[in-house]
Amino acid sequence: MQRLVLVGGGYGNVRVMNHLFSDGLPNDVEVILIDREPYHCMKTEYYALAAGTISDKEVRVSFPNHPQLKIVNAEVTKINLAEKKVELKDADDVSYDTLVVGLGCEDKYHGVPGAPEHTLSIQSIRKVRHTAQELHCMPSGSTVSIVGGGLSGIEVASELCESRKDLNIRLYDRGERILSTFPERVSHYIQEWFENNGVTVINKSNITKVEPGYLYNNDEANATNAVIWTAGIQAHHLVQELDIEKGAGGRAIVTEHHYLPDHPEVFMVGDCAYYDQAPSAQLSEAQGDQIYKVLKARWNDQPEPKLEPIKLKGMVGSLGKKKGFAEFMGKPLTGRVARLLKSGILWMYRYHNG
């Protein structure tokens, strides 16, 4: 009996499971999914959960149900490559023949003093719940500072603006214009939306320290009641602890077939794998598609398949519930159409996976 162990129930491993259980899983393969949570969480919607504009239930999707699937709800404490096992907290270790690691990411604080201790996070469902509780209980007139003007920071700021109009919201961005990787037209549209809705954007910022009640920008103290950190991510610490070659953000260097060069039985997916494109749910799913092709070839005693470079269709973001922005098939979109596009993608994901 072959044992395939999937560590982490994120977008990449959910995609692997969807293929496994719909395309004919060999009878001699046992699949074990290890995750702290009893359901898949739609991380792309964490910003709305933090702001309080959607409920916890709306980000949860049930894991697949299959007779050859066993789900273990436990916290992973170590990936033991030498002994080919996954060590768990308060549970028995799980051995594997093949392993797919999709543990996700953690905040990257860039060495800023006080940032790990005094900021709120949206990188895990448990941290998002804590962040939401803090934001919900803030008195009227409180100041919330969001560090990082990328996609996550923009969506948190806009959603919080709609949820708590009584708060003062500041968005700190390092660039000369917000979301500088997008076309200028999109950046200007987002900037105008924030101006019209009372969100203060502080460009060319450089956060140097965080203290209780204060955020230091270019060493100047700014009074604040809360700080939400969206200024960078890195691979899960268990991946960073592995004695393997790593790239930017502590992500594992993998072959073109997504496995470790010295451990062909270990695949890395999503934020755990170094790739030449920015991490995203869309990229994780595409990696999951290709990992399944490799697994299928191995089980059928076939050569490794030729895999084409992953090409993403684009990126979409929201500005509250009615407006949005996107770069889709190389074309920038703004306004209601972009928001409808994102809503449609989310509906299709829930329908396909739920």
UniProtKB/TrEMBL annotation:
Protein source organism: Scopulibacillus cellulosilyticus
A Pfam cross-reference name: Pyr_redox_2
GO MF term (any one): oxidoreductase activity
Enzyme Commission identifier(s): 1.6.5.-
Cofactors demanded by this protein: FAD
PANTHER family from the UniProt entry: 64 KDA MITOCHONDRIAL NADH DEHYDROGENASE (EUROFUNG), APOPTOSIS-INDUCING FACTOR 1
EC category name: oxidoreductase
InterPro entries: FAD/NAD-bd_sf, FAD/NAD-binding_dom, NADH-Q_oxidoreductase
Keywords of this entry: FAD, Flavoprotein, Oxidoreductase
UniProt KW Oxidoreductase keyword: yes
Family annotation (Gene3D superfamilies): 3.50.50.100
Transmembrane segments: none
Official protein name in the record: NAD(P)/FAD-dependent oxidoreductase
Domain FAD/NAD(P)-binding: 3-282
Family the UniProt entry places it in: Belongs to the NADH dehydrogenase family.
SUPFAM superfamilies reported for this sequence: FAD/NAD(P)-binding domain
